Amino acid sequence: MHQSKNIFFCLCMLILSFLQVGCSKDWSSDIHPQKWNKVAEEKLDQILNRKLNGKIAKNVILFLGDGMGISTVTAGRIRKGQLKNNNGEEEITYMESLPHVALSKTYNIDAQTADSAGTATAYLTGVKTRFGAIGVDGRAFDCPTSLKSKTESILKWAHFAGKSTGIVTTTRITHASPAATYSNSFDRDMESFDGINFKQEHLDQGCKDIAAQLIEENSFINLIFAGGRKKFLSSNHTDYGSKLKGDRIDGRNLIEEWHEKMKKQNLKHKFLWNISDFNNLKSGQYSHILGLLNFDHMDYETDRINKIPIEEPSIIDMTAKAIEILSTNPNGFFLMVEGGKIDHGHHSSNAQLALNDFVVFDEAVGQALHLTSSEDTLMIVTADHSHVFTMGGYSIRGNSILGINLNHVSNVSGLNLTYTSLLYGNGPGGIKPESVRQTNLTNLKTEHKSYIQESAIYLKSETHGGEDVAIYASGPMSFLFDGTVEQNYIAHVMAYSACIGPYNKTKYSNCHKKRGVIVRSFSTKLSKSKLNLFYFCVAMWFQKYF
User: Which of 20, 265, 432, 480 is the most exposed place for a label (fewest CB within 10 A)?
Assistant: First the structure.
């Protein structure tokens, strides 16, 4: 009886497999070698005719996909293609269309697998540091040592160079990644004076919570679109548009303090907390904008678009508006855009939430490419770290990336049960004795927005992954991204591209001169010895004059 059930089940799965193939897009042209030869020849031609840009960057845009490891990029690419009713594997994302690529080593100085704070310090300030530390070097481990170990970020270098500055994130503005653009703290959890993570003793030692640092020391930032109002309001203050109270125990309303500070400096400014105010923003209206668009983190894209009416702008809209507003500065701008909810989705082992946020993050990259020019804008897309997120199972072409695994070998596990292509090494979907699955999964279940992918190890929150992540880049000096690099190198390339910070005219006078050298032979008939002599003369000339 048991054997007949298994045969019946396998027959059903075989039929389902054929149905799935029938539903995928036609890929019959892929069987011909001419197609793949043409694809390769076109890529060769594109790269051989590529012109390297050695100009000084006017603008720098850093896109940070939090937790966006390479497996996320691959699965996200397929998800994006399938949302267009294509197979998905052949999709080309905007970030992957950028011409220069490198790999980034993400470890912290004290951690093999990093967190978002230590990594943000690396790619924003150019210095690697400890796990959990923001804007301080490796000598900081408590409040007194952190005061002596502060680092400066690319955002501040841009500001000192006369550029406008902005931050867009789908997390709280005081969260680890955005906080590293402006704050210095040995502990990422010191987001507000809450009496738990940041206490009176820290204040007495001379430290400030992250929200206070933003308002007191970094009000020069021209534009912020983010979440996190609760870190700026005390337990005595009711949130804008809700009945919720803030986290602070010091009685301060930092939003009002920001408003008063702007007034005293006679600066045109705007605080906004809702989508109506956001939609009404126009370029040139204000020199300083503080947009805190959620009490806590902003919504997942999956949830945002299903609210009626929609309560928050998308990361696409925030990116476009930020560029529009910051572009009015003739000296240029620095903008960081973080897709922070990719990371949150992965921590919940919810691949659909993570991948849907990846899709809109990539669309934000596309919007930025449309609104700027690679002639004067360095654009970088990277991640701070990866996740223990895997994609496998020999899935057939066009298989639903969120669905059960259908393949040419076996569609069931050793326990004769269906399983998904997307899994996590650990997380909420891990194996527990009382919840070992004994029934089959279906696409109806696995494609639901609340489905939690299965994991080998049970943890309440899935962890980061320790492998390298990709760096995609275009624009001035983007060719400096090549090979495998330390993550802190990213900040140095951004600074060098724009000749700011440690590479400004005062500190490094040759930045505007040393923009890369391309040596081409003048004649294909030149002998090898003549070419060697030519290269030697060029090298001696640069050594003498530069």
Answer: 432
Judged on CB neighbours under 10 Å (0-12, 13-18, 19+), 36 is: exposed
Give, as one character, the DSSP assignment of residue 234: B
Give pTM, 2 decimals. 0.90
Give me the phi and psi of 100, to 5 degrees please.
Answer: -115, 135
Nearest Cα neighbor of 451 from 256, 302, 315 is 302
Taking each helix axis as running N to C, give the angle between helix 116-125 and helix 489-498, from 0 to 180 degrees, rounded to the nearest 10: 30
3-state secondary structure 19-57: HHHHHCCCCHHHHCHHHHHHHHHHHHHHHHCCCCCCCCC
DSSP 195: S
For residue range 365-388, what is the model confidence (pLDDT) as tens digits?
A: 999 999 999 999 999 999 999 999
Structure tokens at 512: 């505007």
Say how far residue 109 (Cα) sits from the centre of its chain.
Answer: 21
Strand partners, 404: 420
| Rounded Cα gap, residues 67 and 65, in angstroms | 6
Both tokens of 12, joined, read: 């059903």
What amino acid occupies position 388?
V
Closest to 463 in 3D by CA, of 342, 347, 354, 348:
347
Q: Which two tokens stand for residue 530?
A: 């003549």
The phi and psi torsions of 425 (rounded to 5 degrees) equal -65, -35
- The closest of 63, 65, 58 to 326, measured between CA atoms, is 58
Structure-token match 């020849």, residue found: 41
Distances (CA, A) of 50 to 47, 97, 366, 479, 520: 5, 13, 20, 11, 14
Contact yes or no for 336/431 (Cβ under 8 A): no
- Confirm if 104 and 120 have CB atoms less than 8 A apart: no
R_g of the chain computed on alpha carbons:
26
Query: Among this protein's residues, is 28 annotated catalytic?
Result: no
Nearby residues of 428 by Cβ (< 8 Å), 6 or more positions away: 348, 349, 452, 455, 458, 459, 460, 461, 462
Q: Token digits for 174?
A: 């005081």
Which pLDDT tens digit goes with each residue over 33-82? 999 999 999 999 999 999 999 999 999 999 999 999 999 999 999 999 99
Which among 379, 250, 360 has a CA at the least distance from the CA of 315?
Answer: 360
Determine contact, residues 93/73, Cβ cutoff 8 Å.
yes
Cα–Cα dist 165/289, whole Å: 11
Catalytic residue among 104, 116, 164, 234: 116
Cα 148 from Cα 206, distance rounded (Å): 11
Q: Which residues pair with 292 in a beta bridge?
A: 226
Q: Which DSSP symbol is given to 136?
A: B
